[in-house]
Design brief:
By secondary structure, this protein is α/β, with parallel strands linked by helices. The chain has two domains: 189 residues, Rossmann fold; 74 residues, no CATH class. It contains ten helices and eleven strands. The strands form two sheets. A six-stranded mixed beta sheet has the order 7-8-9-3-10-11, with helices on both faces. The two termini are 30 Å apart.
């Protein structure tokens, strides 16, 4: 790998609660170039908290620490608030899991994309409108002009997700963090969204962190995979070799996947080893 776009070393996310301290992310380390990196694991494994911590979006009472957390040479831990504001949504964007909770219900789709663009670019309304329409077209909206004027409740889940992708990519970021971007979509729409992401990442040369539960999807879509369990990375390997994983947790996840060829009932469950969480 050439000079990494993102460098994460010993990232930890803690939540200090009345009942004690919960360590959601424990010592995660990785580097990311202009490639597709998948992060997989069960709910609660720390995938989403890792993505949010990179952007500094961990809410109170959360605490983020790391030996190194740098984006394109910028230390994200010591950067000023203004620098972080410029980076978020500008050079680093994040697509959240469900668009209906991320889009503003009282603003049209077009207004929200324009707002995101003008927050990071010096542009007039006409230029921003043209850019917004171009992005809606880039994410394969059938009638960009009509969608531009719609409110979030007037679009389907797939259209809402594509609108979110358009909003996050309108500033031409260098890094996109996609947190379960297809989990709320049916199979057909999901594949369309992935195809759009694939084209945009390839054309723009971005880095992509793809957070997902779907191991089969990640194995075919990403270049590398981090497997997380209990806040830790238990295995890192090339996505195409996911079926050759060595860690028993990864092997167990793969065995739990249903197949059309062999109808196994009930599906296998994981036999967990307490040492995995150590």
């Amino acid at each position: 790998m050439t000079k990494p776009l993102l460098d994460v070393e010993d990232l930890r996310v803690r939540f200090h609660l009345r009942t004690g301290t919960v360590e959601a992310v424990r010592g995660v380390s990785f580097q990311l170039g202009r490639e597709r990196l998948g992060i997989v694991g069960e709910s609660g494994s720390g995938k989403s908290q890792t993505g949010r911590a990179i952007l500094g979006l961990t809410p109170p009472p959360g605490e983020i620490t790391a030996k190194r957390l740098a984006f394109d040479g910028i230390d994200l831990q010591t950067a000023s608030r203004r620098t972080l504001r410029d980076l978020r949504g500008g050079r680093i964007s994040m697509v959240m899991q469900d668009p209906k909770y991320s889009l503003n219900p009282v603003m049209t789709i077009g207004e929200q994309i324009i707002e995101a663009y003008r927050a990071h670019k010096r542009a007039g309304k006409a230029e921003a409108r043209d850019k917004a329409l171009a992005m809606l077209e880039a994410v394969k909206m059938r009638d960009p002009g009509r969608v531009f004027s719609l409110y979030p409740h007037e679009v389907s889940g797939g259209m809402g997700q594509r609108a979110m992708i358009a909003m996050m990519l309108v500033t031409d970021p260098d890094l996109l963090i996609a947190d379960e971007p297809t989990s709320a979509l049916d199979v057909t729409v999901s594949m369309e969204v992935l195809r759009i992401l694939d084209e945009l990442v390839s054309e723009r040369g971005m880095g992509l962190i793809f957070i997902s539960h779907d191991l089969k999807l990640v194995s075919s879509f990403c270049n590398r995979v981090l497997v997380m369990y209990a806040g830790r990375v238990v295995e890192e390997l090339e996505a195409r070799h996911l079926r050759d994983a060595k860690h028993p947790y990864t092997q167990g996840l793969m065995r739990c996947l249903p197949t059309l060829a062999n109808d196994v009932r009930p599906l296998p469950t994981l036999d967990r080893d307490p040492s995995w969480a150590q």
